[in-house]
Amino acid sequence: MSSKATIIEKTESQANSTQHGTGEASIQELFDTQKAYFATDVTKTYEWRIEQLDRLTRMLKDNYKRFADASCKDFKTAVQENVFEVSASIATTEFTKSQLKEWMKPVEAPIPKFLAATGHKGIVYREPYGVTLIICPFNGPLLLSLRPAAAALSAGNSCILKLSEALPATDELLLELIPRYFEPEVLTAVVGGREIVTELLELPFDFIFLTGSVGAGKAVMKATAEHLTPVLLELGGQNPAIVDETANLPDAAKKIVWGAMAWGGSGALHRAMRPFMSP
How far, CA to CA in Å, does 52 sit from each of 17, 77, 178? Predict the structure, then answer.
């Protein structure tokens, strides 16, 4: 592919202008490109979705060590955490691929008896939202960016990733690799601070996913209210577990401790596909 990633930087003297590392496209142009592409309905097919997940897996596997090294540079944490970032993202994508065909099946819904008695049926067909925005946090550079991206793509959405400017090594790698494996109308990434987020939130996205603070969540909800954009906020980073009297206590304890210690980030489990689809 000849397309390049879009790097967006701002300084105080550039508050009213946007500079792109490649000079190829503005945020508005990126959005319009994805909007037009989604309107072709090509993203609704099983084949398209599997292809995008395959591309994501290849990107991670082909560059496994580079991603782990970038995470190490950004966080300077234990090797196993940096490896886990990549491995967990691959595993999530592979699991999504294995379940995708089942998730795409229409689901029969209950209807009033008098309608059922006359032969009527209620069927739910899940449809993708459209152009999605994923606002990524500084922690979990892959788990909290590529995992939600896998969910969005598997549900038939195009996606713009707003990467955290606090992760220079990981950002640089993603901005280099995403255009090698994806067309810009499918998946692209931008980097920037509050000004870039503000510019993005002025656009009528079809769905927004945010991992961040409560304050950031309030700001996003307020900004998107004008467009009535559906927003999914992951703010707490806590995963409570309920262990009842039927549980195998040693097994439950082992799994809970593993889940708490496996990764130093928020540990939020982003369930693939469903949040990014409307019934």
Answer: 33, 31, 11
Q: Are strands 19-20 and 8-9 parallel, antiparallel or unpaired?
A: antiparallel
Query: Greatest CA separation found in the chain?
Result: 69
Per-residue 3-state assignment (H helix, E strand, C coil) for the chain = CCCCCCCEECCHHHCCCCEECCCCCCHHHHHHHHHHHHCCCHHHCHHHHHHHHHHHHHHHHHCHHHHHHHHHHHHCCCHHHHHHHHHHHHHHHHHHHHHHHHHCCCEEECCCHHHHHCCCCEEECCEECCEEEEECCCCCCCCCCHHHHHHHHHCCCEEEEEECCCCHHHHHHHHHHHHHHCCCCCEEEEECCHHHHHHHHCCCCCEEEEECCHHHHHHHHHHHHHHCCCEEEECCCCCCCCCCCCCCHHHHHHHHHHHHHCCCCCCCCCCCCHHHEEC
Q: What is the pLDDT of residue 266?
A: 43
**For the chain, how big is the Rg over CA atoms in Å?**
20
pLDDT tens-digit readout, 42-51: 999 999 999 9
Spatial CA neighbour of 188 closest among 3, 5, 1: 5
Residue-wise pLDDT tens digits, 60-82: 999 999 999 998 888 877 677 77
pTM of the model: 0.78
Q: Are strands 127-128 and 277-278 parallel, antiparallel or unpaired?
A: antiparallel
Answer whether 95's CB lies under 8 Å from 273's CB: no
Q: Can you say whether residue 105 is alpha, beta or left, with left for phi > 0 and alpha for psi between -120 and 50 degrees?
A: beta
In this prediction, residue 271 carries a pLDDT of 39
